[in-house]
Amino acid sequence: MTDLARASLEHSGGAMTTTSRPGALDAVGSLAASLLAGGSVVLLGDGVPKCVGGDDVDARVEAQLAERYELRHVVAPAGAHGVVLDESTVDATAADAEGAELIVSVGSGTVTDLAKVVGARLAVPVVAVQTAASVNGFADSLSVLVQKGAKRTSPSAWPAALVIDHDVLADAPDRLTRSGVGDAVAVWTSPADWYLACALGVDPGPYSDAFTAPVRDAVVAMTAPEATDAERMSGLVDALTLGGLMIGAAGSTAPLSGCEHLLSHVLDMRAMAEHVEHDLHGAQVGVASVVAAALWDVALHDERILDVSVDDLAPPADLRERVLATWAPVDPSGALGEECWIAVERKVVRWQEQRGGVAAFLADRERHRGELERLAGDPASCAAALAAWGAPTTFSALTPSVDADRARWALAALPFMRDRMTLADLLLFAGRWDDALVERVLARAGEAGGGL
């Protein structure tokens, strides 16, 4: 078990303390008192009841604060997709929390992200009470927002205190825990995308195993076949919390967010634009991790993508048209396509500025090939880890199910959404990104227990 209290102080530069143990919920009052002697406190939640041992979690938190503080309840506005952190949600919550001297959030990763961004806007500390082991975003200084319909990661603030009560997590819905497993398993593929971007010079980097190895080690513990249920849950908590800490320390989600997270974001964006439901972020990431590992397998071994020359690599002349065409069926107004093109264009500019870095990368291709083989992961291992926890491994097993056409579209859309370089972009620039490649990747994922 990792000493998360020590790790939190170390990687946050002293900005965040973490209390992680059974019964940690009872520490909320003393943690709040260490930050604010008295005054106005906002309790931020999503209105969904959460229980531990038959007790209401919100009520137990409120009971610890009621005598010392002037309390206000703020419930994040929810729509068809639950709480979505778009501009109107953030603005409305910040207005409702105006005048608070401390925010205590109780809820999911989305509620915590909202608390962090509102806390940063109002310049007040946040005590985050984590109610499920569902994502790694509780323990970092970033928030995933929806800006003009597109998923974007933005700086916010570290929680001043993070409370992880293992009893609360154990009583959370199994679906949320399985989502956390999907988010954690991504570490078996995502570092390869970050390494690639850094080695090409498109990401300033530099790449370092220090941001990924601790999470990999924790994921091994959470998937050990001989582990007890308590040990596996402890490993999951470690994997997610360390993942958040590494992201916060790096100042970017890049170390733990590659093609697999991008695929989940693309699915979210289409669902939101079409006003239909989508599954939890981590559940989608888990399924996408099997696909991402298969993509690396096909790219390295079938396509031999590292054997290209500098002259073989160039952004397609019709890239803007391809970005707009990708998103036009989702948003006929063209606004979402234009927002994505702005991001993709930034990526192209950095690529063009780093031609020397690309040449140096290819000159040392064998060393880079070895590193990418090490980091890219095995699709069968990803699928087996998910299956061991009862998490979905295929698009059709998601809730709601993602049909084959939508899955193919989402995979094909990977280079056309954001400004971060991934393997999908390298394949696009090499002229290899087409429907036939998508089919081979999905077939390879299917052979490993994932895919459609």
TrEMBL record:
Cross-referenced InterPro entries: G1PDH, Glycerol_DH
Keywords: Cytoplasm, Lipid biosynthesis, Lipid metabolism, Metal-binding, NAD, NADP, Oxidoreductase, Phospholipid biosynthesis, Phospholipid metabolism
A single BP term in Gene Ontology: phospholipid biosynthetic process
Molecular-function GO term, any one: oxidoreductase activity, acting on CH-OH group of donors
Pfam families for the chain: Fe-ADH_2
PANTHER family associated with the record: GLYCEROL DEHYDROGENASE, GLYCEROL DEHYDROGENASE 1
Protein name: Glycerol-1-phosphate dehydrogenase [NAD(P)+]
Species, as recorded: Agrococcus jejuensis
